[in-house]
Amino acid sequence: MLVSLKADAYGHGALRVARTVLHNGASWLGVATVSEAEPLRAAGITAPILVFGYTAPWQAREALRLDLRCTIYSLEVAQALSRAACDLGRSARVHVKVDTGLARLGLRAEEIETIVDFVGRLYNLPGLVVEGIFTHFATADRADHTYAHKQLGRFYRVLEALERRGLRPPIAHAANSAAMLTLPEARFDLVRPGVAIYGLPPGDEVPLPEGFHPALSFKTQVAQVKWIPAGEGISYGITYTTSGPTRIAVLPVGYADGFRRAPMNWGEVLVRGQRAPILGTVTMDQCMIDITSIADVSQGDEVVLIGRQGNDELTAVAVAKRLGTIAYEVVAELLARVPKIS
């Protein structure tokens, strides 16, 4: 199992998640960029790490220094890795990316002879070890798997063509969270769960199995409580004006923490188990909420932005629907300056 740690482990804290999943059965890790892997290696993580995204030729030496597996679909990058491997006396392990229908990185799956020729060239480059080949699904998070099966069929045909010529890399992989849960035929030699590891459903049409729960809560504290007179403006731009005396709480969280400002903010938060609406514009580091109807709120009180408090809960999925996005984006936007506490 390879666990995706992209975007600081979807906002959960990559190092903490890496140690947890490796202790609980995962054997590989995945990151989006070479730079995302550096702090993991610096902290002593030695597990195989695959870089899903683009590795520029000038990053080849750094990728090898960090003992990373690189995604490959370009002869230029492959040659840069080969040269770096020879210079450093190391092996450069690579995974060939096949674009079966997502139209992102990768060699087009219908161009089978091009792929076969490319992989053959890789095997002849000194210092290069062709360890894997993979693809990524576009719609595995939908109940209708017609397109996912089309992608899977294309990937199988590529693997069969390579097998016939004795060029199939030893590790084939395709299954993201959704495919891992709903397409057992896509599991191959390695699975790559991402969002499901964090207790979030891959999509509205692919629920998580029973027993999965969100791994993350997002909380802050009340920094100040005060009364604002009627007719007064709140926050930049005075987009909100009080209609009567209003008791507000100022929170030390803003859009620089991933607490969205626009085009729509989160709408409300939980204080003392009750929902409190956000007033005015969310600023870089602070925001204000209406606590007029919530008794006994004091400086230092816990405020829940994602998670449960009392009998109520604000989920990343619910926040995402309000914002017109997906839960992945909501949690991935939680920036590194937000302390991560186990």
Task: Explain the overall architecture.
The chain is α/β, with parallel strands linked by helices and 342 residues long. The chain has two domains: 2-198, TIM Barrel (Alpha-Beta Barrel), CATH 3.20.20; 218-332, Lyase, Ornithine Decarboxylase, Chain A, domain 1 (Beta Barrel), CATH 2.40.37. The protein is built from ten helices and 19 strands. It has helices at 6-11, 14-23, 34-42, 60-65, 75-88, 112-123, 146-164, 177-182, 316-323, 327-332; strands spanning 2-4, 28-31, 49-51, 68-72, 92-99, 107-108, 128-134, 171-175, 190-191, 218-221, 224-228, 233-234, 240-241, 246-251, 268-271, 274-279, 287-290, 302-309, 312-314. Strands 1, 2, 3, 4, 5, 6, 7, 8 and 9 form a nine-stranded parallel sheet that branches. Strands 10, 11, 14, 15, 16, 17, 18 and 19 form an eight-stranded antiparallel sheet that branches. Strands 12-13 form a two-stranded antiparallel sheet. Helix 6 crosses helix 7 (146-164). It is elongated. The two termini are 23 Å apart. 41% of the residues are buried. The mean pLDDT is 96.
Notable traits:
single chain; 342 residues; alpha/beta; TIM Barrel; Lyase, Ornithine Decarboxylase, Chain A, domain 1; 9-stranded parallel β-sheet; 8-stranded antiparallel β-sheet; 19 strands; 28% helix
Work out the radius of gyration: 24 Å
CATH architecture of the largest domain: Alpha-Beta Barrel
Number of domains: 2
Order of helices and strands: EHHEHEHEHEEHEHEHEEEEEEEEEEEHH
Output the CATH homologous superfamily of the largest domain.
Alanine racemase
For the termini, the CA-CA separation is 23 Å
Structural class: alpha/beta
CATH class of the largest domain: Alpha Beta
- Portion of residues in beta strands equals 15-25%
Helix count equals 10
Shape: elongated
The fold-level CATH name of the largest domain is: TIM Barrel
State the total count of DSSP E strands.
19
- Helical percent range? 25-40%
Low-confidence stretches: none
Largest sheet: 9 strands, parallel
Average pLDDT over all residues: 96
